[in-house]
């Protein structure tokens, strides 16, 4: 029987090409029609430290990194010791025999990676040695990888021919050496090229492209893991007339800068992580009370404080939805796939302009650094967000009434004060109770303008449902497909719109006997929010800094469902 997918884990020290190898394998595979997804995790130091990256190559689309490792590529002894337990029983271990030796593991084969690379005349071809060996293990035609090398390094520069030659030689040396081991995992089923154009892209890149496609004009940010690549992307690409990108000295400066830009009529955004959201709290409150459009991206990491700065978690939901003191409940979009990173950013820019206020766009480390092939977005179908701009005369009352009103632009008619104190119709400070009541109701009522109808729904006849959010979507979806095949009576729901939830979705969830929420935090934060909305929700939590394994979710959802059936029989 042919393999439908295989999982390779590259483990070693930062700087040894661990990430490059995984991403190269993924990219070369997608160019011939396979689907690929990577997962990267590394320490917080600039260089060095234990690092590993996993690549999953499959005939069919995949959303999770994979539970079991088919091949472990260990660059050093520590990597082998820490990861060998994850290799399935009939898997293979390739170890860098230039670095260390192994004895007593019948699944292991030594590959002198650096030595073989040097023999090609190109010391940087080590990852190609490994890729050649991996291709042999699953009988992937060598033409696939050679075509990848040709496309990647044929850049019209002097020396390209030599680089291509040495890399192809490295591929062949890796294949020849692993052939001596006698190891083989089987045949990977042939790839089938999709009938649409694709991109191999990381989550942070997709999010940045989506924001620009949505009409972003002004970006200011401060470097912080894992959001820094968004800042770097904007500095390179948010260029041209009426566009601006800049690095500032703190998160407080970031939020105040985009507040000013939003007030001046620009579509503005910043990106940060949990610690930055904490520092932006006061600015977000000002944006809420003064009704100024802006987007804050939170690429979540482990917390609190510095916490786990390069690990993944979903523990910032409460701080994103309720970031400021007083009565505040911000709109929240939480993306769950690399493709959703693009479209979620488009929607976040649209939401901010539509209801004239701050929007939180939540991603997470596992998505930010994930490389995945997605359908190339059709930019012709995306309209940049538009603001309702005031075009009347002076004497305008910006904050009159309980509903959204057109927003004046400085220098144009309709002057008003964007006040951080409670205010009257034109923005002047007031402490009158009736004004605070009116303005509070106005700010909350505007959120209804953002209600969407878009959500996923399957098995709605069942009284128990699974509802993941954010990056837990992938493992939860694969788990659900297994549960469905096994006949476990459970339904599936999903949306990236967490506040406001699609009204029809919320109505359906309220009718369920139980809604199971897989989420990467200790407190079960989304379940807490859902229970406040009248949903009988219970979380499956994990807080290891790593994504869920599909196997774990299958076991726990089955256990919960079975225990409910037993209770029903007992009653």
Rg from Cα: 26 Å
Distance between the termini: 47 Å
Mean pLDDT, rounded to whole units? 94
Give unreliable regions as ranges. none
User: How large a portion of the residues is in β-strands, by DSSP E?
Assistant: 15-25%
Q: How much helix, percentage-wise, in residues?
A: 25-40%
Strand order of the largest sheet: 9-8-10-11-13-12-18
* Major sheet size, sense and barrel closure: 7 strands, mixed
Shape: globular
Assign the structural class, choosing from mainly alpha, mainly beta, alpha/beta, alpha+beta, or little secondary structure.
alpha/beta
Q: What is the strand tally?
A: 20
The helix count comes to 19
Layout of secondary structure:
Elements: E1 5-13, H1 18-30, E2 35-41, E3 50-58, E4 69-74, H2 77-83, E5 87-96, E6 108-111, H3 113-119, H4 126-137, H5 142-153, H6 160-179, E7 198-202, H7 203-213, E8 218-221, H8 228-237, E9 244-247, H9 251-263, E10 268-272, H10 274-279, H11 281-290, E11 294-300, H12 317-321, E12 332-334, H13 338-355, E13 358-364, H14 365-368, E14 371-375, H15 433-445, E15 456-458, E16 464-466, H16 473-485, E17 491-494, E18 497-499, H17 503-510, E19 514-519, H18 525-532, E20 537-541, H19 550-570
Parallel strand pairs: 1-4, 4-5, 5-6, 8-9, 8-10, 10-11, 11-13, 12-13, 16-17, 16-19, 19-20
Antiparallel strand pairs: 1-3, 2-3, 7-14, 12-18, 15-17
Helix pairs in contact: 1-4, 3-4, 3-6, 4-6, 5-6, 7-8, 7-13, 9-11, 16-19
Account of the 3D structure:
The chain is α/β, with parallel strands linked by helices and 571 residues long. It contains 19 helices and 20 strands. It has helices at residues 18-30, 77-83, 113-119, 126-137, 142-153, 160-179, 203-213, 228-237, 251-263, 274-279, 281-290, 317-321, 338-355, 365-368, 433-445, 473-485, 503-510, 525-532, 550-570; strands at 5-13, 35-41, 50-58, 69-74, 87-96, 108-111, 198-202, 218-221, 244-247, 268-272, 294-300, 332-334, 358-364, 371-375, 456-458, 464-466, 491-494, 497-499, 514-519, 537-541. The protein has a 7-stranded mixed β-sheet, with helices on both faces. It has a 6-stranded mixed β-sheet with strand order 2-3-1-4-5-6, with helices on both faces. Strands 15-17-16-19-20 form a 5-stranded mixed β-sheet, sandwiched between helices. Helix 2 links the parallel strand 4 and strand 5.
């Amino acid at each position: 029987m042919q393999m439908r997918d295989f999982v390779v884990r590259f483990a070693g020290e930062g700087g040894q090409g661990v990430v490059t190898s995984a991403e190269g394998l993924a990219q070369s595979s997608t160019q011939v029609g396979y689907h690929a997804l990577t997962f990267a995790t590394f320490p917080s130091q600039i260089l060095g430290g234990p690092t590993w990256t996993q690549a999953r190559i499959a005939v069919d689309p995949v959303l999770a990194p994979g539970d079991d490792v088919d091949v472990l590529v260990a660059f050093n002894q520590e990597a082998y010791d820490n990861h060998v337990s994850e290799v399935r029983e009939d898997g293979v271990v390739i170890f860098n025999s230039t670095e260390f030796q192994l004895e007593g593991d019948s699944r292991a084969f030594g590959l002198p990676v650096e030595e073989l690379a040097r023999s090609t005349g190109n010391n940087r071809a080590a990852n190609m040695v490994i890729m050649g060996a991996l291709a042999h293990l699953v009988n992937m035609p060598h033409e696939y990888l050679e075509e990848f090398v040709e496309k990647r390094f044929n850049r019209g520069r002097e020396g390209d021919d030599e680089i291509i030659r040495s890399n192809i030689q490295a591929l062949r040396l890796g294949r020849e050496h692993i052939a001596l081991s006698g190891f083989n995992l089987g045949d990977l089923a042939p790839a089938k090229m999709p009938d649409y154009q694709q991109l191999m892209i990381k989550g942070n890149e997709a999010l940045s492209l989506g924001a620009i496609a949505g009409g972003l004009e002004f970006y200011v940010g401060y470097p912080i893991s894992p959001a820094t690549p968004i800042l770097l992307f904007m500095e390179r690409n948010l260029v041209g007339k009426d566009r601006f990108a800049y690095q500032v000295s703190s998160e407080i400066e970031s939020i105040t800068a985009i507040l000013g830009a939003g007030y001046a009529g620009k579509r503005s955004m910043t990106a940060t992580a949990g610690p930055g959201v904490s520092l932006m709290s006061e600015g977000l409150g000002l944006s809420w009370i003064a009704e100024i459009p802006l987007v804050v991206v939170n690429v979540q990491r482990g917390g609190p404080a510095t916490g786990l700065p390069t690990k993944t978690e979903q523990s910032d939901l409460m701080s994103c939805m309720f970031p400021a003191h007083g009565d505040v409940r911000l709109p929240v979009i939480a993306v769950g796939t690399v493709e959703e990173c693009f479209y979620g950013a488009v929607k976040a820019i649209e939401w901010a302009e539509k209801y004239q206020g701050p929007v939180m766009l939540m991603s997470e480390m596992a998505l930010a650094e994930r490389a995945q092939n997605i359908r190339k977005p059709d930019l012709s179908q995306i309209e940049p967000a538009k603001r309702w701009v005031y075009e009347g005369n002076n004497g305008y009352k910006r904050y009159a009434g309980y509903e959204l009103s057109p927003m004046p632009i400085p220098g144009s008619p309709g002057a008003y004060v964007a006040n951080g104190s409670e205010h009257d119709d034109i923005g002047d400070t007031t402490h009158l109770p009736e004004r605070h009541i009116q303005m509070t109701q106005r700010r909350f009522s505007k959120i209804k303008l953002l209600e969407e109808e878009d959500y996923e729904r399957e098995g709605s006849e069942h009284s128990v449902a699974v509802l993941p959010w954010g990056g837990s979507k992938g493992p939860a979806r694969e788990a659900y497909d297994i549960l469905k095949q096994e006949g476990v009576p459970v339904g599936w729901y999903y949306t990236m719109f967490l506040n406001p939830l699609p009204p029809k979705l919320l109505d359906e969830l309220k009718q369920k006997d139980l809604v199971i929420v897989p989420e990467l935090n200790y407190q079960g934060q989304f379940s807490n929010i859902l229970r406040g909305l009248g949903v009988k929700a219970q979380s499956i939590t994990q807080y290891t800094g790593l994504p869920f394994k599909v196997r774990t979710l299958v076991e726990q959802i089955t256990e919960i469902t079975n225990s409910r059936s037993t209770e029903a029989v007992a009653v």
